[in-house]
Amino acid sequence: MLSVIVPAFNEGENINAAVKALTGLLNEKGIAFEVVFADDGSADRTWEFIEKAAAADSRIRGIKFSRNFGKEGAIFAGLSRVKGDCAVVIDCDLQHPPELIPEMYALWEQGAEVVEARKANRGRESLIYKAFAKAFYGIMKSSSDLNLDGASDFKLLDRKVIDALNALPERLTFFRALSAWVGFKTVQVEFEVKPRAFGKTKWSFKKLFKFAVSSVTGFTNLPMQLMTAAGLIFLAFAAALGVQTLVNFFSGHAAEGFSTVVLLLLLIGSLLMLGLGIIGYYLSKIYEEIKFRPRYIIERETPTADRSSNPGGEGNDD
Ligand code: UDP
Ligand code: MG
73: Cβ below 6 Å to ligand 1? Predict the structure, then answer.
């Protein structure tokens, strides 16, 4: 059986379309499936639509978070719930073409354990966004050897991979990179990013930036070591300057240049603060991990027959 995991955050308009597209396609291809929607604390009618779809079709299920925990939490909640022999993660807004699923499924039947759908293009995005994405993927590649350029969360995973991901103890996750990091026999397919079906993107710039920094630091300690490198460079400078000062002193020329001193102080001061900031950032991540808080909290799950509380309850977002 194929499991389909669909993270959804304020996707009220898209649920029915996604259900229709997925069930229609998989029925037609004769693939046995289940769909698991992970409602990431939506404040709109997303949960109501998920419940309706689940009531109408027993192959559809839903999980609802108590608040917005982020797409990572939604994906991992789905992974922990699916029963299939393989699972595909797909966006709710139909930007990941469902038509690709049968092809990915066929590759899995031929022995692939991870089928990555890579973006052939990046869709309609602003120049700044593209530049940031490029810088981010560049850092990830050079520091952790994971080539994520064009990577997306649209992936099909074998049961073995799902179990490996479920067994990871960490709380601060980056699905896109972790699913490559665990290894296994990987095959790639390409897809064209389509415009969003309804609504607008659920990622604000701030959210995306935080996610990028946390992902880079989650995979490399290089930023911390940069400070050591900077320290060494400044030590070399200091030694050279010391020698020069001594030479000047003995040859009778007193050193001058007050502004040079101020400049050096500023430079070293700011580097020190930057270094402390980087260390502080890693420290806060360690702190977050050792608190052992869950990645998400589930408020409701379908079938909800045993509960009489109001359906479509609200969660706070972010
Ligand atoms: N999403 C989520 N939680 C969030 C943000 C997004 O579950 O906090 C889901 C969203 O509902 C969608 C998918 O993640 O199914 C991709 O989000 P979006 O389309 O907004 O991102 P983009 O395509 O612009 O990268
Ligand atoms: Mg999208």
Answer: no
Contact between residue 185 and residue 144 where contact means Cβ atoms under 8 Å apart? no
For residue 210, give the ligand nearest its CA: 1
- Distance, CA of 136 to CA of 284 (rounded, Å): 21
pLDDT below 70 — which residues of the chain? 122-124, 254-256, 304-318
Q: How many CA atoms lie within 13 A of 187 on its CB side?
A: 16
Q: Is the CB of 93 inside a 6 Å radius of any atom of ligand 1?
A: yes
Residues near 93 by Cβ (< 8 Å), separated by ≥ 6?
Answer: 11, 14, 196, 197, 198, 199
For residue 7, which ligand has an atom nearest its CA?
Answer: 1
Ion ligand 2: residues, CB within 5 A, are 93, 95
Which letter, b or e, does each residue of 202-233 get, where b requires 16 or more Cβ atoms within 10 Å of its Cβ? beeeeeeeebbebbbbbbbeebeeebeebeee
Q: How far apart are the first and last CA of the chain?
A: 34
Tell me the H-state helices in the chain.
12-29, 46-56, 71-81, 101-109, 127-144, 159-166, 175-181, 205-219, 222-250, 258-290
Query: Which tokens hold the place of 166?
Result: 């479920």
What pTM value is reported for the model? Answer: 0.73
Structure tokens at 228: 């050591």
Is 298 in contact with 47 (CB distance < 8 Å)?
no
Q: Note the maximum CA span of the chain.
A: 93
Q: How far apart are CA 234 and CA 289, in angstroms?
A: 34
For residue range 206-248, list pLDDT tens digits in order: 888 888 888 888 888 888 888 888 888 888 888 888 888 788 8
